[in-house]
Amino acid sequence: MKIPRSTLEQWQVLQAIVECGGYAQAAEALHRSQSSVSYMVAKLQEQLGVELLEIDGRRARLTKNGEALLARARELLGDAFQLEQLAGSLAEGWEPQVGIAVDSLFPVELLVQVLREFEPSATHTRVNLEETVLSGSEDALLEQRVDIAIVSRVPPGFLGDVLMDIEFVAVAHPCHPLHALGRELEADDLSRNLHIVVRDSGTLNPRDHGWLNSNQRWTVTSPHTRLEMICSGLGFGWLPEHKIRTQLEQGLLKPLPLRVGQRRKQSLTLIVANPELAGPATCRLANSIRKVVKEGIKLRPLCE
Predict the structure, then answer these.
(1) What is the CATH number of the domain that holds 266?
(2) CA pair distance 299, 244, nearest whole angstrom
(3) 91 with 106: CB under 8 angstroms?
(4) What is the mean pLDDT of residues 206-223?
(5) Who contacts 218 (Cβ-Cβ below 8 Å, separation ≥6)?
(6) DSSP output for 93-148
(7) In this structure, are 160 and 108 located in the same domain?
(8) Which parts of the sequence belong to the HTH lysR-type domain (predicted)?
(9) How many Cα atoms occupy the beta-carbon half-sphere of 68 within 13 Å?
(10) Rounded CA gap, 41 and 290, in Å?
């Protein structure tokens, strides 16, 4: 294994000489003797076989070679400081990685706000975000892939805090045949039209959700794809109200005039996988979710 001839300490001394303007000033800034500073730079140049500094009047300036090498050395010094900060975070119990599974129903604007608040305090913690549909977040908990999950149903053996209710509304394009009937709709009307649903991303205990009695049903894996299909006039479905506000306002979607069942609600729950063993990063992220949902972006109602 090759061992570098130069040390980070030598490069730090060189950087101090350049930034402070001379050997004496660097020695004072580093709390060293001027002779030790001079020796370390002389030794560094000898080890590399390259002149790094030249004296211009009373100031020490980098040579062209010195500029190129110190630029790379600054990156190494920055990496070294970050490595020490990471070690300090780990010593304090901060996890190197936090996994979170989030049901696709959770508002994206809230999720972004949560992560923005979390990031400054967790610069050395990686976040692994898994976006799920239906039982997908439950699978992530049961398979111990995540530390935190936002679920639409609490799996056996776990406890959680209800975050919010998501309201669904039955919709179709304004030109859809169901709207052309010009009256209140019954279940039989729906059963004769194409219903578009999203497939459960979970595999352990997959489930269907909502009304599924249509004679023709298409299943997709992406909530966004379902939205685009329904906006184009290809079928109907119950969609989360907060995700279709723009489409409703622009006239791309229109609520179906169902006599019963036009709207339904689904609760989202926050679960910390192992509350007793949760580290600082997991606790901070979970608390940020609670705070943002309670005090953060307000989902304005359709009619104000």
Answers:
(1) 3.40.190.290
(2) 12
(3) no
(4) 86
(5) 194, 195, 196, 197, 229, 235
(6) T--SEEEEEEETTS-HHHHHHHHHHHGGG-TT-EEEEEEE-TTHHHHHHHTT--SE
(7) yes
(8) 7-63
(9) 4
(10) 54
Average pLDDT of the chain to the nearest whole number: 89
Per-residue confidence band for 299, with pLDDT thresholds at 50, 70 and 90: very low
- Cβ burial, residue 220 (10 Å; 0-12/13-18/19+): middle
* Domain limits for position 135: 95-304
* pLDDT over threshold 70, residue 281: yes
Please state, in angstroms and rounded to a whole number, the distance separating the CA atoms of residues 60 and 29: 15
Q: What is the pLDDT of residues 80-127, one digit of tens each?
A: 776 776 566 556 667 889 999 999 999 999 999 999 999 988 878 899
117, 276 Cβ separation under 8 angstroms: no
Question: Domain ends where: 63, 91, 119?
Answer: 91
Inter-residue contact 223 to 211 (CB < 8 Å): no
Q: What does the alpha-carbon distance between residue 57 and residue 93 come to, in Å, rounded to a whole number?
A: 51
Q: What is the DSSP string of 49-83?
A: TS--EEEETTEEEE-HHHHHHHHHHHHHHHHHHHH
Position 73 in a domain: yes
